[in-house]
Amino acid sequence: MKRMFPIKAEILAVEDLQVRKESTIPGGGDRFFARSHPISVHMASESGDGNCSAWAARDPSGVLSPYKFNRRSVQSGDVSLKITHCGVCYADVIWTRNVHNDSIYPVVPGHEIAGVVTEVGSDVKGFKVGDHIGVGTYVNSCRNCENCNSSLENHCPESVFTYNRIDTDGTVTKGGYSTHIVVHERYCFKIPDGYPLAKAAPLLCAGITVYTPMVRHNMNQPGKSLGVIGLGGLGHMAVKFGKAFGLKVTVFSTSESKRDEAINLLGADNFVISSNTQQMESLKNSLHFIVDTAAGDHPFDAYLSLLKVGGVMALVGFPSEIKLHPTSLNLGSRTLSGSITGGTKDIQEMVNFCAANKIYPEIEIIKIDYINEALARLVKRDVKYRFVIDIENSFK
Ligand SMILES: [Zn+2]
Ligand SMILES: [Zn+2]
């Protein structure tokens, strides 16, 4: 696909550097954050009464309020989706509050989208009206690079995030806190019959974010052992996948209050308070795998020392930096690996796996008028384990 705005893209790239220098974004997160655009970017098509009702943040206060805008009409390869549910991800806090200095207001967040197909373009092969489908963290890519050709669209240099990015038609993408969305069918995923749409929503970001590295690093080997750091939206899905893969799962948390649910609700085999050095010491060289979902800064050496020889720790969060002693990797030939969301093939595989194995995220359903409280609670990690907005009943 040809980039339609080469000149603008170049100007933005220069400003990128400035934004990135001033922000606290770690260099390693460049694919996730590098497409910084100045806040002043404004597209004429955004204003006025539109065909789509939404809630948007207007400025870095991050406060959301009702907003209307226009979605494009359905093109030949597009699917139009009536959104019934949208999960609330920590990314929604980041971009409504301009944490990375790249928010393009008004920001309509939401990239855990589930709903029902209402219209398909003439070339659409995979979906029909009435199908239940999901849309995740990206809605476009070049469709012609090495990564796209390997179903790794999440790593395409031209991939377009579901909101707060400039799409190939020049419009700013707007996410799932809205009544409908129009997306090329390549970035839509079939939700099998009988899988509740409310529970499907968190699979599209939280689910795939932990599923991808777990499968890539062969963590689906029954009998092996997995550590999960952090027990939020991502962590609780890692525990569920771990149990479905037949692993012995140990949860590492800072909060004793999560012990009961980790074991009795989520099915973890073991629960460890990470500040308890005695407990940590007793687990040295005992784990085959670790999935690190912690968003905040934390030591790495202590966790890496828990891995057996050849063990793998997969990082899916964005701490401000990673500091570790080389011996933590070299002794034991351990691997520290990163990952972000997943390609289209993996997303569909993960959704199908959840349906086949009856894996359901734990959710708290809210209406859109509770979203400001919900985001505030998310910042305090006061959610078990994912807020999902009942979009269908919020805009009546
Ligand atoms: Zn997300
Ligand atoms: Zn590509």
Automatic annotation (TrEMBL):
Residues 62-389 form the Enoyl reductase (ER) domain. Pathway: Aromatic compound metabolism; phenylpropanoid biosynthesis. InterPro entries: ADH-like_C, ADH-like_N, ADH_Zn_CS, CAD-like, D-isomer_DH_CS1, ER, GroES-like_sf, NAD(P)-bd_dom_sf. Its cofactor is Zn(2+). Its EC number is 1.1.1.195. Transmembrane segments: none annotated. PROSITE patterns: ADH_ZINC, D_2_HYDROXYACID_DH_1. It is an enzyme of class 1 (oxidoreductase). Coiled coil: none annotated. Homodimer. This is Probable cinnamyl alcohol dehydrogenase. The lineage of its organism: Eukaryota, Viridiplantae, Streptophyta, Embryophyta, Tracheophyta.
